[in-house]
Design a protein that fits this description.
The structure is a single chain. This protein has 429 residues and is α+β, with helices and mostly antiparallel strands. It folds into 3 domains: 98 residues, OB fold (Dihydrolipoamide Acetyltransferase, E2P); 44 residues, E3-binding domain (Dihydrolipoamide Transferase, Irregular), CATH 4.10.320; 221 residues, Chloramphenicol acetyltransferase-like domain (Chloramphenicol Acetyltransferase, 2-Layer Sandwich).
């Protein structure tokens, strides 16, 4: 028997480090070749790392939330044959750079060492013998994907009470959805538990981006839009599409995407990135001819922004179909890194949950974001009296360092004009 060392692979696209999002196996588990063993975060994408060989898990490198460089030790397997590593890590091996909460006190304290860490280096001869190293397992931590853990948290369920039906006892989404807690079967009881959840993975990346956004002065402009003509057109197009199996249903977003394409043609400075990397010289505005439209999408793990590429070249039906595909991939955790990066301007919408007005936060380094609020019947002045009309508010935020209030207002008014008179969306001039 030998020891096989698995290192963090080069995922490409210049990625230098990854964050451990989830261990998919535990010490002692038997793994097959190409079986996923860990999920790691790169930017906003989660990538599963497969085992290059079959074997039994000896140790996992660190706890979820730890950032490891490409090439760093990820896992050790016991394998048939000679393997490719020593049975224990060499004493000079550097520890991975932690970004998770610090580990508990050393083994000399009352509490034992955290079991997630790799086995310690061989002690010097002069040191007293210590208790045998504990296996690198995560005690009482059921196997489940990040999206399954997020679903359990949303429902207030303890995964340790759920029996997994997946390989190796892994808890599946269906196990969580079908679980009926004892309290639901026999009346209510007070829940006195307190849980501390590490802010890691996608949630931490979102937190970091939001923190960075606080350094950018935002200006938000809210405008009311009367959308009766747009809703009539949308209903007619959907009725026509119903006769064609497979045709995408049109929501508001494809029309808004087309309106944004038309509006940024007049104001290209809003389809841009504001770059402030001091190492590359003075701040600059990078304007794009192509409109790569970010579509903010809520997933079980948090908010991600899949990208509708070349929105300027797509028709309404193509736009609707691609938005639906991207949203499904994002929610299912299958969106690629390429599909989650490279946007030039972003739409954010809470759909039916939307409020009267919101204050969207910029998706840096972009300089504009368009927020869509829910459509509601409100009084509308016709010139002779009030009538109930479907009304929707647009909430648009801009980077005030490069977008003046006047320019932002011109952009919002252009969007309002296009949405209130949807025939303009198809005009050539």
């Amino acid at each position: 028997m030998g020891v096989y060392l698995i290192r963090v692979p080069d995922i490409g696209e210049g990625i230098a480090e990854t964050e451990i999002a989830e261990w998919l196996v535990a010490p002692g588990d038997l793994v097959a070749e190409d079986q996923p063993i860990a999920a790691v975060m790169t930017d906003k994408a989660t990538v599963e790392i497969p085992a290059p060989v079959a074997g039994r898990v000896i140790a996992c490198a660190a706890a979820p939330g730890t950032v490891l460089a490409v090439g760093a030790e990820l896992m050790r397997l016991e394998v048939e044959g000679a393997g490719n590593a020593e049975a224990t890590p060499p004493a000079a091996q550097p520890a991975p750079r932690p970004e998770a909460p610090p580990a508990p006190a050393p083994a000399s304290a009352a509490a034992p060492a955290r079991p997630e860490a790799l086995p310690p280096s061989r002690p010097a001869a002069a040191q007293p013998s210590a208790a045998p190293a504990q296996p690198s397992a995560i005690p009482d931590r059921p196997l489940a994907a990040p999206s399954v853990r997020a679903l359990a948290r949303e429902r207030g369920l303890d995964l340790r009470q759920i029996t997994g039906t997946g390989p190796g006892g892994r808890i599946l989404r269906t196990d969580v959805e079908s679980f009926e807690p004892a309290a639901a079967r026999g009346g209510r009881r007070r829940n006195l538990s307190v849980e501390e959840i590490p802010v890691i993975g996608l949630r931490r990346k979102i937190s970091d981006r939001m923190q960075a956004a606080t350094a950018v002065p935002h200006i938000t402009i809210v405008e009311e839009v009367e959308v009766s003509a747009l809703e009539t057109l949308r209903a007619r197009l959907n009725a026509r599409a119903a006769a064609h199996p497979g045709a995408a249903r049109l929501t508001l977003l494809p029309f808004l995407a087309r309106a944004i394409v038309c509006a940024v043609a007049d104001q290209p400075g809003l389809n841009a990135h504001h770059l402030t990397d001091a190492a590359q010289g003075p701040a600059r505005l990078r304007r794009f001819g192509a409109v790569h439209l970010g579509i903010a999408t809520q997933t079980p793990s948090g908010l991600v922004v899949p990208v509708l590429r070349h929105a300027e070249a797509l028709g309404l039906g193509e736009t609707a179909a691609e938005i639906a595909r991207l949203a499904e991939a994002a929610r299912g955790g299958t969106a690629t890194r390429e599909e989650l990066s490279g946007s030039t301007i972003t739409i954010t919408s809470l759909g039916a949950l939307g409020a009267i007005a919101t204050t969207p936060i910029l998706n840096l380094p972009e300089v504009a974001i368009i927020g869509v609020n829910r459509i509601a019947q409100r009084p509308f002045w016709t010139g002779t009296g009030f009538e109930p009309r479907p009304m929707m508010n647009l909430s648009c935020s801009f980077d005030h360092r490069v977008v003046d209030g006047w320019d932002g207002a011109v952009f919002v008014q252009r969007l309002r004009e296009l949405l209130e008179t949807p025939a303009l969306l198809f005009a050539e001039v």
